[in-house]
Design goal:
The chain is mainly α. The chain is built from 16 helices and no strands.
Length: 454
């Protein structure tokens, strides 16, 4: 969401009147702002996310449960994918809400009223419940939400693993609020609601006692991410677990059954681009396999588990009660882990700078930079997958970066310290390109030798 794209006085004045509330859903979101102060607040909030992720990792490592670096970076890469979408489409998800409020609102609730605040908070959370439930019960919507469930780990980085187009599939569940709730309130609470859900993606926190009856907690949400029978399609809540208790979708965590995370059908890839779009092909193939127009429609808009002759959401009693499997992984050398972490950090900071100053980019340059970030994330995924295309794509990617920043004389600063940092970045990209060139040559020679043997 990029509210500053929508030139509306009601949004700006309302948000400023709420005490300059700024919103951050994940460490990459810097394009969502209403005043010039936002980059500072975003940067500060981003730091807290990173700090919490590091603290969680330290605690898990002490327990011998530190999640693999490839899964963590893949989760954050999916979050970065989603943020690139927000830049590329510039507030399209929020335009409908603003349009309805400006033209068709039935009653104008005062934006500075406590009752409006509470009504928006409850309405937002109820809307989230039904929107979230729809992403599990409509196969087309699940094609986007499955990204969030694709990790076989469960930690704070999992909260950032989101589908690129999910916002377009769920926005309709919030639009009724536009007939009453001012956009300033809606935008604030939409971010508060999602921000709350960051901390529940962890195994570090156990049971929270009486709070478990009212709030969505790590325990409740762990069940939601489980892939065994008792976990599937349970605990959709955002903030308040009361919706699940009211609508019959609540399930408490069972201490005697170890949770297995991920999709029921294991996904064997760390490529964020593949994770974002592979299920759309499954939806299309399922639709094509149906013999009647009615069944083709159901293949798209009924549940992921639906087959002809079954209930709308499929047969829950046919789901596995237990799942025993090895987690998908490729061992990484310490060099590869450090290499991927540094490149991802540089990409994240590059995206942060681009998102903060995107209005200074002309259209083609902006989309070109977005495409570069996407290709870079794909390249890191290919490294994690041990794909033979990795060194070729990575070499070209690093050379493009060096050529681009030298041509446009980027990273030229007046301070010696910053110049040293920027030169260090150039050297790291040059080192990366040379390392990949060596691997490309090795692959080429191996292929030539195989051809000679044949």
């Amino acid at each position: 969401m990029t509210v500053d794209i929508v030139s509306m006085d009601t949004i700006t004045s309302g948000i400023e009147g709420l005490g300059h509330l700024f919103y951050v859903v994940n460490p990459f979101k810097t394009s969502f702002r209403t005043t010039d102060e936002v980059p500072h607040y975003v940067s500060r909030a981003s730091s807290w996310f990173i700090v919490l992720i590091i603290i969680e990792r330290i605690l898990l490592r002490k327990k011998g449960k530190a999640p693999p670096i490839n899964d963590c970076i893949t989760s954050m890469a999916c979050g970065l994918f989603m943020e690139i979408n927000h830049i590329a489409f510039r507030g399209a998800e929020t335009a409908a809400y603003v349009y309805i409020y400006e033209n068709y609102r039935l009653y104008e609730l005062p934006w500075d009223s406590l009752w409006t605040w509470l009504a928006c908070a409850v309405g937002m959370d109820l809307g989230y419940y039904w929107a979230h439930r729809a992403t599990h019960e409509v196969n087309l919507f699940w094609s986007q939400h499955q990204v969030h469930h694709s990790s076989e780990e469960y930690n704070l980085t999992t909260a950032l693993r989101q589908g690129v187009w999910q916002g377009f599939t769920t926005m309709f569940y919030y639009l009724p609020m536009a007939f009453f709730i001012p956009p300033s309130q809606f935008f604030v609470h939409s971010q508060f609601n999602l921000l709350f859900q960051f901390w529940i993606h962890t195994e570090v926190i156990d049971n929270l006692g009486p709070l478990e009856w009212v709030l969505n907690t790590p325990s409740h949400h762990r069940v939601h991410h489980g892939s065994t029978r008792y976990c599937v399609d349970k605990n959709y809540a955002g903030v308040l677990i009361i919706w699940d208790r009211m609508f019959g979708t609540f399930e408490a965590e069972r201490r005697d059954e170890p949770l297995v995370y991920g999709l029921i059908e294991q996904v064997d890839s760390f490529n964020p681009f593949y994770l974002e779009f592979f299920y759309l092909r499954k939806v299309f193939e399922k639709m094509q396999s149906m013999s009647t127009v009615t069944d083709k429609f159901k293949a798209i808009f009924y549940g992921p588990g639906w087959v002809p002759g079954s209930p709308k959401l499929g047969h829950y009693d046919q789901l596995p009660e237990t799942i025993i499997r090895e987690k998908f992984s490729h061992p990484l050398t310490p060099h590869d882990q450090i290499y991927a972490a540094i490149h991802f950090l540089l990409l994240s900071e590059g995206y942060r700078a681009m998102a903060t100053h995107y209005e200074e980019f002309d259209g083609w340059l902006l989309y070109g930079c977005c495409a570069y970030v996407i290709v870079s994330l794909i390249s890191i995924g290919l490294l994690f997958n041990r794909n033979s295309w990795f060194p070729w794509i990575e070499m070209i990617r690093c050379l493009v970066f060096l050529a681009y920043q030298l041509h446009f004389e980027l990273f030229l600063t007046e301070t010696i310290g910053m110049n040293l940092i920027m030169n260090g970045i150039r050297l790291f990209y040059l080192y990366s390109a040379l390392q990949c060139k060596i691997e490309c040559v090795r692959q080429f020679r191996d292929n030539m030798q195989k051809d000679k043997i044949k």
